[in-house]
């Protein structure tokens, strides 16, 4: 590792150790101060964001992720304030017990120390991770997307200003240089960075998985299905499917593949009409294609190829698959899902129960849009990402997911017999 | 990945999915049956173990880890039975709440699916991991140490027999071939194996960290300190230090470095005499050397070099460092500790509190031997390893640490507004 990166990480480590013993009230105040500063500097943030947007292709599906507006900045600040208002998880005793030999064991919640983040073009994440790490007493080392460089630097300047105002070490929040070596250094920072969380597309996540030598929480890649069951309610299905696909196509909880029971092909047009109204391009298998043929312009209805299943579209596109049974739907999901968010639309309680029991995913929905896979929507105040792995955290991650614990064992000279 | 490994992992995956919906009572019965079979086949196990021991160098410090005796087999079976008797963590609701829009969120405990293990020469781990994975509804894929090959194969045969007796899929416990390609395949089994846990020395752990593309829980490497404070009680210190160093030198919670306050150098000889009686070779810094010079044979008292600090000895050897203050002790530990187990001997409550707050380790002890860092000693029934990372699990890992969770969200057609 280059010496200057090692120095950055070591400084973050020292800052993190100090945060871990700082009054939680002061950490919350730093977050509120930062939120206020972002609001007050909305014009500067919009100007920096405009520079980033200029450099991005006009038809890039990532533009929506990058875009800041006055409303979005206000929402970011509001999210920060709601995180600041949450109870601090720091220092709590998770469990305590006494052993027969008289020694006591306490399991105490503590911060990780240093949290690494690798992001693509989502400047709101910069503020989110700052507030979540501050509230949990963690230092943060962030490698932002180069697409969002100016936005991130402008946000980071305000965050640092807030840290200074509260007398905290600026190294508690480190924005790494916008160069590729920074990612390699971060992923190899064994003993200095406790966990790295990639937040971005499948390519970024794969890169981190291949190269990290420190613990990783994989997030974000969502290949999301909704299964319209034989006993599905058409009204609920229309609303849930359209919302899951079109609310915001660039996010990881957006619908990628609608699975329909063969017995409901007669309702398929009614189910899909709201999608067509949003000009969603549908890649349908043979049976579904036949059921919809002629109803939509040819540019909106295509024949599905194998490659369309198991694809995260992040766009106004969707695969459509016909199955003969719930089990066939479960098999399709087991094969293609990224274990992020999966939904069933059904009025049959047995089908709902089997679906929620058998589907291996972070969030399993019954008659609810997958768009709710989000820390804020779950009531966590904000989120640091959606974990798609099973280790440590799964699904939307909030404050407790950014902490670990240690055991404190007290006694009076106890020794262990063979 | 070679096709035959992919098939093994896929079979484990299917077995794991089936275990996840199997009656926990039946899983517990399989563990009890296996324990009974191990007891009944003690002669066969000892014979297989003797073959492994024959092939190992007579002076290898790993012999004690490899050695099985009738008593140890009985202890292994007893540990399995106590795990079988523990309540199953499967299927429990960890938390549940309703959102303002009327949808309900339940956080439900579920097995990982497939747990991978890479072990060195410790055949008892094979039985431990079987019982812990069974009780938590996980399939297990184990790469045992080639040193323990015959012991492991003999144990695995009995475990498979127990699975068959209970009508369970044998693929729920897979002992990988004793060849190096098996480790590479396991570490690359993205999407098939949910977590891999190395259990062995620093070299094994480093190898896994460098090569794994699936989530890892690092375990076992213990560079362990005990600090004898200015206010330390000599009687407690003598007992705790000697026990931590000599109870079993080959295990990860064994003491590696005694730190002594300069103000107690006059008591150092009394503190170290029990170690000398066990013929522990001490690598002392200048001050400590001067305090002990002439008291022990030259072969037991050496001058410390830098390399002796931060070394896991796994042998009758120990580093000895003199400090002028608690803070200096904390700095030494922060620099050299592997964050496994750290202890202070003191009668000063303020020193004890500062030590437990500032030391960043899985287990922090006050006036207790570090030999207690062990799942059984913590009351977990047995242990799957001692995590030295902060993600997911820290310190001794028992049943709950082998599970994850999913969110089940139920509603009535809820959609998310922008």
In quaternary terms, these chains amount to homodimer
Q: In terms of structural class, how would the helical and strand content of chain A be classed?
A: alpha/beta
Averaging pLDDT over every residue of chain A, what do you get? 93
Query: How many beta-strand runs of chain A?
Result: 16
Low-confidence stretches of chain A: none
Beta-strand portion of chain A reads 15-25%
CA radius of gyration of chain A: 24 Å
What is the overall number of helices of chain A? 15
Shape of chain A: globular
Work out the helicity level of chain A. 40-55%
Largest sheet of chain A: 7 strands, parallel
Trace the largest sheet of chain A across and list its strands: 10-9-11-8-7-12-13
Task: Tell me the span between the first and last alpha carbons of chain A.
Answer: 44 Å
Hey, which two chains have the biggest interface? Answer: A-B, 69 and 68 residues
Search tags:
homodimer, 418 residues, alpha/beta, seven-stranded parallel β-sheet, globular
What does this structure look like?
In chain A, 41% of the residues lie in helices and 21% in strands. Chain A has 418 residues and is α/β, with parallel strands linked by helices. In chain A, the strands form four sheets. A seven-stranded parallel β-sheet of chain A has the order 10-9-11-8-7-12-13, sandwiched between helices. A four-stranded parallel β-sheet of chain A has the order 5-4-3-6, with helices on both faces. Chain A has a three-stranded antiparallel β-sheet with strand order 1-2-16, with no helix packed on it. The model of chain A has no long low-confidence stretch (mean pLDDT 93). Chain A has helices at 3-19, 24-40, 42-54, 63-66, 70-85, 123-136, 149-165, 180-187, 202-211, 234-246, 268-277, 286-292, 326-336, 349-358, 375-378; strands at 93-98, 104-111, 114-119, 139-143, 173-175, 195-199, 224-228, 255-261, 281-284, 301-303, 317-323, 341-345, 363-368, 386-387, 395-396, 403-414. Strand 13 of chain A pairs parallel with strand 16 (403-414) of chain B.
């Amino acid at each position: 590792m280059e010496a200057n990166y090692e120095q950055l990480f070591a400084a973050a480590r020292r800052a993190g150790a100090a945060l871990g013993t700082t009054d939680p009230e002061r950490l919350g105040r730093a977050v509120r101060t930062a939120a206020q500063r972002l609001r007050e500097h909305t014009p500067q943030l919009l100007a920096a964001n405009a520079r980033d947007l200029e450099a991005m292709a006009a038809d890039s599906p990532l533009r929506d992720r990058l875009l800041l507006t006055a409303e979005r900045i206000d929402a970011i600040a509001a999210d920060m304030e709601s995180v600041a208002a949450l109870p601090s998880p720091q220092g709590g005793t998770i469990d305590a017990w006494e052993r027969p030999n008289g020694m006591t064991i306490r399991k105490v919640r503590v911060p990780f120390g240093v949290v690494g983040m690798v992001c693509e073009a989502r400047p709101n994440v910069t503020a989110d991770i700052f507030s979540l790490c501050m509230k949990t007493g963690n230092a943060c080392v962030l490698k932002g997307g180069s697409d969002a460089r100016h936005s991130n630097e402008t946000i980071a300047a305000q965050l640092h200003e807030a840290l200074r105002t509260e007398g905290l070490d600026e190294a508690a929040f480190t924005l790494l240089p916008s160069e590729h070596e920074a990612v390699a250094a971060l992923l190899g920072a064994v003993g200095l960075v406790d966990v790295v969380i990639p937040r971005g597309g499948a390519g970024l996540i794969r890169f981190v998985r291949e190269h990290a030598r420190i613990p990783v929480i994989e997030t974000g890649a969502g290949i999301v299905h909704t299964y319209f069951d034989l006993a599905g309610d058409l009204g609920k299905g229309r609303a849930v499917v359209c919302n899951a696909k079109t609310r915001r196509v660039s996010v990881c909880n957006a619908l990628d593949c609608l699975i329909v029971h063969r017995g409901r092909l007669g309702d398929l047009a009614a189910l899909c009409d709201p999608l067509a109204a949003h000009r969603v391009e549908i890649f349908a298998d043979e049976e579904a294609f036949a059921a919809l043929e002629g109803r939509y312009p040819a540019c909106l209805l295509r024949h599905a190829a194998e490659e369309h299943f198991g694809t995260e579209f992040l766009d106004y596109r969707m695969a459509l698959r016909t199955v003969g049974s719930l089990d066939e739907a479960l098999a399709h999901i087991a094969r293609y899902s990224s274990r992020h968010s999966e939904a069933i639309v059904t009025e049959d309680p047995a089908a709902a129960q089997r679906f929620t029991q058998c589907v291996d995913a972070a969030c399993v929905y019954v008659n609810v849009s997958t768009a709710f896979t989000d820390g804020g929507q779950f009531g966590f105040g904000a989120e640091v990402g959606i974990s798609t792995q099973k280790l440590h955290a799964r699904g939307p991650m909030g404050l407790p997911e950014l902490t670990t614990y240690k055991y404190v064992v007290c006694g009076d000279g106890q020794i262990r017999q063979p």
